Amino acid sequence: MKKSIKKDDFIPKSSKDVKVLQKHLGLFGYLNYEDRGFDPGNEMPPEPDDKEADAMESISIKEGDLDDNTVQALKKYQDFHGLECSGKLDVNTLAELEKKRCGMPDLGEYSTQGNKWNKTELTYGFQNYTSDNSLTPAKIHAAIAQAFALWAAETSLSFRRVNFSSNPDIRIRFVSGNHEDGSPFDGNSGVLAHAFYPPPNSGALAGDAHFDEAETWTLNIPTGTGKIDLVTVAAHEFGHSLGLRHSNVSGSLMFPSYSGPSRVLHADDKAGIRSIYGGYSIAHAQWIHGTSIQIEYPERLERITRAGFYTYLYGKPNTKNWFHFAIPTPVIVDSKRLKIVCAILRFRTFSSNAIVKHIHIYDGYTKIAAHNNINLTGNNWFAKYGVAHKPSIYWGLGISIGVEFKGGTAKNRRMDFVSAGCDLIK
Ligand SMILES: [Zn+2]
Ligand SMILES: [Zn+2]
Question: Which residues face 294 on adjacent strands?
Answer without folding.
Answer: 324
